[in-house]
Design goal:
- By secondary structure, this protein is mostly helical.
- It has a domain of 29 residues.
- It has 3 helices and 2 strands, in the order H-E-E-H-H.
- The protein has a two-stranded parallel sheet.
- The protein is flat.
- The N and C termini lie far apart (85 Å).
- The mean pLDDT is 74.
Length: 124
């Protein structure tokens, strides 16, 4: 009986000794940057034929054309700055909660209506 208990304890210790991950660390995949190039269609350019692979399937390995003008890096950085400033102002208490909620409502309204507005622009 004692030898069975010892074997169980030794087996458990052997299993635990095999675990070498230090506590508190997580394994994360390294961040990757986007490798897809998307361009905006030029209205004066002739329509390009969709390229096909030899087996007849469409080939998407080239650059893709966007349906409408996309947000640029500068515009994204500007928007991120505005949102960060709004959050920092709320945290620091320099704006009232009512003002924060008003601005947040405007941004949410813009987000909700932007898709429909963009679709209307594309349809024109």
């Amino acid at each position: 009986m004692r030898s069975a208990r010892r074997l169980t304890v030794l087996g458990l210790l052997a299993v635990l000794a095999g675990c070498t991950t230090p506590a508190g660390t997580t394994a994360e995949a390294p961040g990757r940057t986007a490798s897809l190039d998307v361009t905006v269609a030029d209205p004066d350019a002739p329509a390009a034929e969709l390229s096909r692979s030899p087996d007849g399937y469409p080939d998407f390995s080239g650059s893709l054309t966007a349906a409408n003008v996309q947000m640029g890096n500068e515009e994204a950085a500007e928007l991120q700055g505005k949102l960060s400033a709004l959050g920092a102002a709320r945290k620091a208490g320099t704006i009232s909660e009512a003002e924060y909620q008003r601005r947040l409502l405007l941004l949410r309204k813009l987000a909700a209506e932007h898709g429909a507005d963009a679709q209307a622009q594309i349809a024109k």
